[in-house]
Amino acid sequence: MSVTTPRFFPSRAAMGSLLLAVLVATSGCSWLRKSNELYGGDPALRPLEVPPPLPDASEEVSGSVTASGVVAARQAGAPASNGFRLAGERDAVYADVGTALDAIEGVTIASRAQLLGAYDVSYEGSSFLLRVSEIEGGTYVSAVDPRGVPATGDAPTALVARLAEALGASQP
């Protein structure tokens, strides 16, 4: 008696799926291509993207724009456009600034963040941050807008001047 091995015959659905997969795999990505008349012609005639001009070698660049240059400028006490320097540790100056803000009429402190050294204040209809940061040889108190750039409006300038006066500091 001989034993025969059954033969495997794939179903019609499996054969159809296999045929469709082979057809798609060999047809390439032509279905995904998008025609663009700018890039369809001769490569020599395609439009070029020209980068913006670099600064001239004769132009003088003031300051360093590298991260290490910015950090060095901050540590050296390079003043923001709206702030003042105080002697003392940051935490002590932060507490003094809070006391002075409480004493100034019209100042509303929305929030205090001692770890960040920041007060979120409103004064004369303007909202901004007062930042107390440690610099070499003391502390720097400055007004910044919500984007982190120096606040230069009338209200921030007036409040910083009043704070400097109340804390006995001179503005740069």
Descriptive report:
By secondary structure, this protein is of the alpha+beta class. The chain is built from five helices and five strands; from the N terminus they run H-H-H-E-H-E-E-E-E-H. It has a five-stranded antiparallel β-sheet with strand order 1-5-4-3-2, with helices on one face. The protein is elongated. The mean pLDDT is 77.
In short:
The chain has helices spanning 12-27, 37-40, 67-75, 90-103, 154-167; strands at 83-86, 107-113, 118-123, 126-135, 138-144. The chain is an alpha+beta fold and 172 residues long.
Tally of helical runs: 5
Structure summary, number of beta strands = 5
Strand line-up of the largest beta sheet: 1-5-4-3-2
CA(first)-CA(last) distance: 109 Å
Contiguous low-pLDDT stretches (5 residues minimum) are: none
Order of helices and strands: HHHEHEEEEH
User: Beta-strand level of the residues, as a percent range?
Assistant: 15-25%
**Average of per-residue pLDDT values:** 77
Helical residue percent band: 25-40%
- The chain-level structural class is alpha+beta
- Form type: elongated
Gyration radius over CA: 34 Å
- How would a crystallographer describe the biggest sheet? 5 strands, antiparallel
State the main characteristics.
five-stranded antiparallel sheet, 172 residues, alpha+beta, 5 helices
Blueprint (SSEs and pairs):
Elements: H1 12-27, H2 37-40, H3 67-75, E1 83-86, H4 90-103, E2 107-113, E3 118-123, E4 126-135, E5 138-144, H5 154-167
Antiparallel strand pairs: 1-5, 2-3, 3-4, 4-5
